[in-house]
Amino acid sequence: MASEKVVDVVLPSIGESIVEASIKQWFVKQGDVIRADQIIVSISSEKTDVDLPANVAGRIVEILAKEGDTLAIGSPIARVEPGVFEATPPTPAAPASAAPTTAPLASPAVRQLAREHGVDLSTITGSGDRGRITQADVLSQSASAAPKAPPPAPTSAPPSPAPVPTSPGAPMTFSLSGGFGSFKVPPYIQKPGDQIIPFSRKRRITADHMVYSKLTSPHVVTVAEVDLHAVMKHREANKAQYKKEGVSLTVLAYVCQAAVKALRAYPGVNARVLDGATALLKDVNLGVAVDAPDGLVVPNIKNADELSLKGIARAIGDLAQRARENKLLPDDFSGATFTVTNPGPRGNLFGGAIISQPNVAILRMGEIKKRVVIIEENGEDRIAIHPVMYLALSYDHRVIDGVLGNDFLWTIADLLRKGQFEA
Fold first, then answer.
1. Cys bridge to 247: 163, 216, 242, 325, which one at CB 3.0-4.6 A?
2. How many Å apart are CA 356 and CA 164, to the nearest integer?
3. Is 117 an active-site residue?
4. Strand pairing partners for 70?
5. Which residues contact 54 (CB under 8 A, 6 or more apart)?
6. In sequence order, which residues have a C-beta less than 8 Å from that of residue 42 and are 6 or more positions away?
7. What confidence score (pLDDT) does residue 350 get?
8. What is the pLDDT of residue 127?
9. Which parts of the chain sit beneath pLDDT 70?
10. Which of 8, 120, 291, 401 is catalytic?
């Protein structure tokens, strides 16, 4: 029995800093009967691609946004008539003698990329298996079709740079595109062999976010050297048992638990900046960078401070697996209050990460190396070889001063050095 009420399916929030997203692929069409929680559409943002489930069973009355459309968060994208319906019988298959319909072999992601760059797939000879068109094929076609920059028009004399005021109290104006006027970036002129790779929509929005963060938050980076001897002994003693229970015990899990303990001790780091005020946040939702097919994504663990070491390790494993399978949900990306990022086994000594807005800090792990350290034993100093890692904290100097930033990072390092874990 069908209901007369029609329900809008809206583009959900998939992160506080994300204001729009694109329709990547519809898995249903107008008139289809759907069940609750059935995946109906894939949406794309600068952070990740997310499959959106239906929140009601019924019939698709109207699809309001087509593939490739970019819309604001909260915009309606389809209408569903709730109720229980009989599924529409499938269309009979064409007889074997019918002529097959020709279409270029390409995945939905490649088709989306082609739409973004205005590339006609029918003009491309695919380099993949059985002639399948790859992302590289699309980018190559887009680059070859891009117009070359014209040479600069000749001028009789170079323009005079704008004067830079030097007297005390003189106003100074600054332009992102031109500095103070005394320095200009030379125009780019394409040369044979240069490869032009246009920004994808995801890359473009990510770049905007990073520039916005650097311009908004005065970043300060502080680094701590951490002796992981206690961490590694605990891990070696427990990883086999964790594995039997389906949990991978990684160093990342130890760092995350130490970080959430420190966030509870120093709530000024679990915060966001308002207009003339600081909001100290009640929830500790820990963002964790994990690898996905199209690059790193940063879902978060809700109420991470309430979890044991095993709970955090299990949550990280769950996020990582669902990221690899493109099964992360919008809620996984919303509400993060602090982030830990790990460059993986091919990392480097340390590095200052850019703060993910609207957070006020981010912690970056460095690579783990065996180093010579001096330890005290029975009142005497001796030399030992221990695994050591550098942790780098980037923080927003508008609301976090040096004392708070240093104390917060020192607390994380101290918890790891002493092996104070809640297994």
1. 242
2. 34
3. no
4. 22
5. 9, 34, 35, 36, 37, 38, 39, 40, 80
6. 23, 24, 25, 27, 49, 50, 51, 52, 108, 326
7. 85
8. 79
9. 1-4, 15-17, 46-48, 85-102, 104-109, 129-130, 143, 145-183, 345, 347
10. 401
414 is catalytic: no
Both tokens of 418, joined, read 């002493």
- Greatest alpha-carbon pair distance for the chain in Å reads 89
Residue 377's DSSP bridge partners are 380
The string of DSSP letters for 292-322 reads ETTEEE--EETTGGGS-HHHHHHHHHHHHHH
Instruction: At 243, list the tokens.
Output: 């594995």
Q: Which two tokens stand for residue 71?
A: 């819309």
Residue from 208, 275, 397, 407 carrying the catalytic annotation: 397
Q: 315: which residues sit within 8 A by CB, 6+ positions away?
A: 301, 304, 307
Query: What pLDDT, on a 0 to 100 scale, did the predictor assign at position 146?
Result: 61
User: Which position has the token pair 């006020």?
Assistant: 360
What tokens were used for 296? 């790193």
Q: Could you give the angle at the alpha carbon of 127 between the alpha carbons of 121 and 128, nearest 5°?
A: 100
Which 8-state DSSP code applies to residue 73? T
Nearest in space to 73 (alpha carbons), one of 62, 83, 81, 65: 65
Residues facing residue 287 across a β-bridge: 300, 339
Q: Are 374 and 382 in contact (CB under 8 A)?
A: yes
Contact at 8 Å (CB) between 341 and 365?
Answer: yes
Rounded Cα gap, residues 271 and 359, in angstroms: 7
DSSP code for 68 = T
404 CB burial (10 A radius; 0-12, 13-18, 19+): middle
> pLDDT digits over 187-203, tens only?
888 899 999 888 877 77
Exposed (0-12), middle (13-18) or buried (19+): which is 140, by Cβ within 10 Å? Answer: middle
Write the pLDDT tens digit of every residue in 337-382.
999 999 876 768 888 999 999 999 999 999 999 999 999 888 899 9
Cis peptide before 108 (omega within 30 of 0): no
Measured between alpha carbons, how far is 265 from 416 in angstroms, rounded to an integer?
15
- Are 360 and 399 in contact by the 8 Å Cβ rule? The answer is yes
